[in-house]
Design goal:
Elements (H helix, E strand, L loop, with lengths): L3 H12 L7 H10 L4 E2 L6 E2 L1 E5 L4 E3 L1 H7 L2 H9 L3 E5 L5
Antiparallel strand pairs: 1-2, 3-4, 3-5
Helix pairs in contact: 1-2
The site of zinc ion has 8 residues, from α3.
């Protein structure tokens, strides 16, 4: 099992062309790791993020800031429509 930290490092290596892994191989590793998700908006890898409804939509901090205002987020949060979470890393 590849650690969450290592997944982020590999992504950086892929982006600057120094990784031996392809993006597809990296995606498979990400899917095996319970501690990460992909943002539904921008596709970024994330170890924590915002979950809407029963998990039908998850997004990262910067997408949450784009798709909702602080006021509407507050309202949604109080109505139990959204929460922030950090996915547990599987050791
Ligand atoms: Zn995002």
């Amino acid at each position: 099992m590849v650690s969450v930290k290592r997944l982020f490092e590999i992504k950086e290596e892929i982006d600057n062309g120094t990784s031996k892994l392809t993006e597809e191989q990296w995606m498979v590793l990400c899917e095996e790791q319970e501690g990460v998700r992909f943002c539904d908006e921008c596709g970024e890898l994330m170890a924590d993020g915002y979950v809407w409804g029963d998990g039908e939509h998850i997004e990262c901090e910067s997408c949450k800031n784009k798709t909702t205002t602080p006021e509407s987020y507050e309202t949604a949060y109080h109505n139990g429509e959204v929460y922030w979470t950090q996915w547990e890393e599987e050791m």
